[in-house]
User: What shape does this take?
Amino acid sequence: LSPCLLYGGYVFLPFDAPLLPSLSARLVYTLRCAAFATVPIVLGMVVSGISHLCSSALEPSGELQQEVEIHHTYVSQSIQLFILYFFNMAVLVTYLPQELLKLIPLLTGLFAISRLLHWLSYATGRPLRAFGLSMSFLPLLAMLAWNLHGIFGLEPHSLLA
Assistant: This one.
């Protein structure tokens, strides 16, 4: 489903990436797009904090209730995935041609939406969790594969330069 969503967004959404000729401009563009991917994480932190305040497990040594644990797990997994996602996007933007830079905000939007879907499915039922997780993890694997191909296949002479 992730490739279909990315392709549909690339073809049908009426926006283009700005002209970014330099590497620094591309990295700043990626950084600005990545800021939007933090919205679900910050929202999860707020809900996690509220659930901590409303739970009866306010003692530091006490066990967390299931509602609190769901939000805490979501936030920690999302932060880990975001770090991997952001670094892979930062490397990806150095290899992409100008006409494919539209993928950066699309990948960011896909990450944010998939994390929200994962959170919703995690809170409602365990069998649905894999869908949201795979929507955010499989594009990460695809970016990693493309980045490794770019590093070792496209520019092996400048690997250590």
